[in-house]
Specification:
This protein is an alpha/beta fold. The chain is built from 24 helices and ten strands. The chain is elongated.
């Protein structure tokens, strides 16, 4: 704090300068001036916070000087000293906005008291200004401030929780050292195209708004940040375990997953921890990330940490089960039995998925063992491993294959197709044809169901992508188009040859929604099912 003493009497200046306890008043810079011109020069170099000024001075009095100070340095507080009890002086001093008016002679204690009050006023004004500025900054950057605070909380970067909670409270979040937090991870599993940083921020903003609305309806509070690509971390919180997480929160999360699927058209998984104090959030987050990594089937669901050991049989220590006999599979490849190897691998993976035992550790070890087997067989046959990696399946694709079951099966298909193209075994075409016929028979026997390519592929132990390619090669149609064609073929036959109602016929070809069946039929046949029945029955009768 800076103060200037302005008086034309040298003894008065020296008396005040030496008689007042400036250190106690927290005045760390003290200057003196003997006239207005000298005071102006000091102000222009370093404006004081307080001016202690005589009114009666030669050439220019203190009132005129303060009027100049008020125009140019409005933050400076002024305490006038005068030996004249003149009401006009006092009235003008008040009009100019002086802080105090002291009649001389005055004791040092009176001066100290006046300066102390001026200092307190300045500090209060500064505090109010800081709060206003903080409020403006907070309003303009509220999302960024909250995001940084949540990051500090979940990652444990700053263990000064008192300071973190104080800042949260400034942002109107009711949290303190007694608050319990339930950390979660929202993972985007599938999206129609790759999302850039801006898109992900927009999705995070949408997630926050949707969850806020859903949570408010249930009387629950949360905060959220984006941790990394395709991954967001909400923290539900409350004063007790029930406030932080209860069945109402579970319902919010389940509704949120459903909302993302329809109408947003993308799938997510949510991994839910348990209510803990702030200091335990980072450890909870590590376990949730392990759950996220172990969702190798990219299943859309809400997963709970409390159920993890029961559901997966894992204890987070990396225990794994037996892998397929790679030596035996390698021998089958050497004999050209590629499809047998494919079937056994699919059976193994599908069984692991069905039992909910497929984890990231197991998938990684399978990936390593499978590639070791492939490389050994290729090396023996004189092929270079690097020749397998092409634009349609790069080395990066090979590395990423250890992340999800779908990516792994894409790699298995590619590698085994490559092996098949480098073998002369004549039974391969027959074996492939057998798989195709099995799939076609399954489709014809289940036209009353809403068939997916994944379900059909599972029945014949092939990957969905591979089966689609196989159907394109054998029929000229993509798998989904072939299924639709077979459904419509049966529908047309029933329309002409039976008296079933159109709604019954729709159900027999797997359509629960009668309107959807009618629209699809008309799109393909350029007439409604009723029109088709009337037209083709008349044709049949005239023949």
């Amino acid at each position: 704090m800076k103060l200037i003493i302005i008086d034309d009497q040298l003894d008065v200046v020296d008396g005040i300068k030496n008689g007042v306890n400036w250190e106690l008043l927290r005045i760390d810079e003290l200057s003196v001036a003997f006239d207005a011109d000298m005071a102006r020069r000091i102000f222009s170099e370093a404006p004081p916070d307080i001016m202690l000024c005589d009114i009666e001075m030669p050439r220019e009095n203190g009132l005129k000087l303060f009027a100049w100070v008020r125009r140019n340095y409005p933050e400076t507080e002024c305490i006038f000293l005068t030996s004249h009890a003149d009401f006009e002086y006092a009235r003008e001093a008040i009009h100019l906005g002086s802080f105090d008016y002291i009649l001389q002679p005055a004791t040092y204690e009176q001066i100290e008291a006046a300066v102390s009050k001026a200092i307190n006023k300045i500090l209060e004004k500064r505090r109010e200004q800081q709060l206003r500025e903080y409020g403006e900054v907070a309003r303009e950057n509220e999302d960024l401030i909250v995001d940084n605070l949540v990051r500090n909380l979940i990652l444990g970067y700053n263990r000064d929780y008192d300071n973190i909670f104080e800042n949260f409270q400034k942002m109107k979040f009711a949290v303190d050292k007694e608050t319990l937090f339930c950390p979660m991870i929202i993972q985007i599993l599938k999206w129609k195209s790759r999302l850039d940083e801006k898109d992900q921020r927009l999705i995070g903003f949408a997630f926050n708004n949707i969850l806020s609305e859903m949570s408010a309806e249930k009387g629950k509070a949360f905060m959220m940040t984006q941790l990394k690509d395709y991954e967001y971390v909400p923290l539900f919180y409350g004063s007790s375990r029930e406030d932080a997480f209860d069945p109402k929160v579970s319902q919010v999360l389940e509704d949120f997953v459903s909302f993302c699927l329809e109408p947003l058209k993308f799938s997510i998984a949510i991994y839910v921890g348990e209510p803990v104090p702030a200091g335990e959030i980072p450890k909870q987050l590590e376990r949730l990330q392990r759950m996220e990594k172990d969702n190798v089937t990219s299943r859309t669901d809400v997963f709970y940490l409390s159920d993890a050991v029961k559901n997966t049989g894992m204890d987070f220590s990396g225990n794994v089960v037996d892998l397929p006999d790679m030596e035996r599979l390698g021998n089958l490849l050497r004999q050209g039995h590629v499809l047998i190897v494919r079937d056994e691998i699919y059976s193994y993976i599908q069984e692991m998925v069905r039992k909910n035992k497929m984890t990231a550790d197991i998938l990684l070890k399978f990936h390593q063992s499978f590639m070791q087997m492939i490389m050994a067989v290729m090396s023996e046959s004189g092929h270079r491993v690097y020749e397998m990696f092409r634009p349609e399946f790069s080395y990066d694709d090979y590395i990423k294959a250890a992340v999800t079951v779908d990516d792994m099966m894409t790699m298995v298909d590619y590698m085994l197709d490559y092996m098949r193209r480098h073998t002369d075994n004549l039974t391969l075409r027959d074996m492939e044809q057998s798989q195709f016929e099995k799939a076609r028979s399954y489709i014809r026997a289940n036209l009353d169901k809403n068939l997916s390519r994944t379900e059909i592929a599972r029945q014949v132990y092939l990957s969905p992508d591979y089966l689609t390619r196989l159907f394109k090669k054998e029929t000229g149609y993509l798998l989904k188009d072939y299924v639709l064609m077979e459904k419509m073929k049966l529908a047309k036959s029933l329309l002409v040859e039976s008296d079933f109602s159109i709604s019954i016929i729709a159900s027999k070809v797997g359509y629960v929604n009668f309107s959807h069946f009618t629209q699809t039929f008309k799109k393909l046949e350029n007439m409604t099912p009723q029109e088709y029945r009337q037209t083709h029955r008349r044709t049949s009768l005239t023949q």
